[in-house]
Amino acid sequence: MGRKWNNIKYKKAEKDKNTSRIYAKFGVEIYVAAKKGDPDPETNQALKFVIERAKTYNVPKHVIERAIDKAKGGADEQYDELRYEGFGPNGSMVIVDALTNNVNRTASDVRAAFGKNGGNLGVSGSVSYMFDSTAVFAFDGKTPDEVLEILMEADIDVRDIFEEDGSVVVYAEPDQFHAVQEALKAAGIEEFNVAELTMLPQSEVKLDAEAQEQFEKLIDVLEDLDDVQRVYHNVDLDSEA
């Protein structure tokens, strides 16, 4: 399980390289969630989740509030939720989630990113069957045994709890995200290093140095696309084959 957590840490370490782009992407995601339902996060679970996730990326309060106010103000921008699945160098697998107001532009950009960086797009379902949708939390200040006791008292079953690099990591079913988070908050956990709904690979692959360099470029290009919200993959980025 640890290597999967390493890939999440890699994503978190990269998150500050272009904060303005990250803020803009969260602005769109928050706007879409607020537009779909009530703009109050206390009654809109999807909006509440996005805001909680934004906080782990240190998105400023004014960015969050501006996106919600835009939805309240009757703005009528239409966004489509899209998922692309493809292959990187040496058969590595990639899932790309996007929010876009121009489907043709996004499809062209994603296809070009794969094609120019040693990959190719697959059909729907060609990759996702090798991943599991998972709620992931990481935080400091507790031991795995303490967290297990907290969740057992709240009558919550989780997939796994382990410690790595001083943080406790919890894997849970996606529909348990809010229950797990609320139980942890009630136990005094104030800040989360990670609070995500993610796609975890069932197994990981290692690439040689040349292929890994090309793969990391592919991921960087995809994540830099304005319409791309999240990128998941099955490559162990902590070590080279």
UniProtKB/TrEMBL annotation:
InterPro entries: Integrase-like_N (IPR017856), TACO1_YebC-like_2nd/3rd_dom (IPR048300), TACO1_YebC_N (IPR049083), Transcrip_reg_TACO1-like (IPR002876), Transcrip_reg_TACO1-like_dom3 (IPR026564), Transcrip_reg_TACO1_YeeN (IPR026562), YebC-like (IPR029072). It is found in: Cytoplasm. The keyword Cytoplasm applies. GO terms for molecular function: DNA binding. Residues 3-74 form the TACO1/YebC-like N-terminal domain. Residues 79-235 form the TACO1/YebC-like second and third domain. Gene3D superfamilies: 1.10.10.200, 3.30.70.980. Keywords: Cytoplasm, DNA-binding, Transcription, Transcription regulation. Pfam families: TACO1_YebC_N, Transcrip_reg. Belongs to the TACO1 family. YeeN subfamily. PANTHER family: TRANSLATIONAL ACTIVATOR OF CYTOCHROME C OXIDASE 1. This is Probable transcriptional regulatory protein OEV82_02080.
